[in-house]
Amino acid sequence: MAGRGTRVRPHSHTVPKPLLPVAGTMIIERLVETFIRTMDRNIEEIVYILGPDFGNPIKEPLQEMSARHGAKCTFRVQEVALGTAHAVYCAEQDLEGEVIIAFADTLFDSKEMFNVDGADSVIWLKKVEDPSRFGVAVYEGEQITGFVEKPTEFISDLAIIGVYYFKDGAKLKAELQYVLDNDIKGPGGEYFLTEALDRMIQDGKLFKTATVDEWLDCGTLPAWLETTGIIVEKEAQNSSEQIDAYAKQGTTIIPPVYLAKNVTLEGGTIGPNVSVEQGCVLKDTKISHSIVRDHAMLNRCTLAGSTIGAHTQVSDVHGEIHVGDHSIISTK
Question: How does strand 106-109 pair with strand 214-217?
Fold first, then answer.
């Protein structure tokens, strides 16, 4: 999670993308919770690979999250963004024993438990309609035989979602070291993780597939909004009693809506597909398909497809806006 999150600006100016909320829970924590739910292994340690300027305001919530799940918390730094293989190698002293590598701007889900027994590596995959947009796995049965980055001709429709299991982290480390030492770069002059994986396959390591039911992207503002809407709908707990209670106070709720604790609603219409984080105040506001981060205040607004930063005040604004933390916007 060392990237700058440029495609979710302005929010990533103050919060790394994996710490942004999706219906009340950080993206990174939802990813960890999915591993806990779908694997038969305990998570003993979480290693966060951060950018060079990520300080304590970023580290503290990650330490707290690790503690909530009974895991040791470790931080490593990628000083310069040189690609996925380089990023993983920045945690080379942690690559021992069983290891999961995950890129922290994606969410996935599965109804079934994943079985990694007997494999040297397991790669999480999702069937897609347009494989040319993704790195894909070439496979025979459940065994992976190779990888292709953004194929121009159809070779596989199973896209790599950015989640990998390795039985022997030291073997992965050795292959990453080889890629870096021999300056094996891919498109854009970066070191790609798939290069190390291909070398492991050529060395006779057994790679298996793990297909997921759902793969949700959080890497852009539209994707973050869409994923939040999907999660809000999936986890919707809006009861008729809650809706009636707000209606008596003059606010119309159109489910599905996520409302955190200590939210104040006075008039207006909230929903559908809206996530409102804790401590927010919305007065005489109509809002749909939007995200409102913690302690924001909206007054006399009509918004759709918008993302509102934490501790931000917005008054008399209509349409679609994307505004970062601690901002004040008013048309008056």
Answer: antiparallel
Distance CA 137, CA 141 (A): 12
Task: Kindly report, residue by residue over 120-137, the tens digit of the pLDDT.
Answer: 999 999 988 888 878 889
Residue 278: pLDDT over 90:
yes
The domain segmentation of the chain, as residue ranges, is 6-224, 238-330
For 296-316, how does the pLDDT look when each residue is reduced to its tens digit (9 = 90+)? 999 999 999 999 999 999 999
Terminal Cα-to-Cα distance of the chain (whole angstroms):
40
- Amino acid at position 38, single letter: T
Q: Domain 238-330 adopts which CATH fold?
A: UDP N-Acetylglucosamine Acyltransferase; domain 1 (2.160.10)
Residue type, 46: I
CB 93 within 8 A of CB 201: no
Pairwise CA distance, residues 276 & 242, whole Å: 15
Could you give the CA distance from residue 198 to residue 194 in angstroms, rounded to a whole number? 6
Rounded to 5°, the CA angle 12-28-38 comes to: 155
**More confident: 256 or 105:** 256
Class of domain 6-224: alpha beta
Res. 5 pLDDT band, cuts 50 70 90 = low
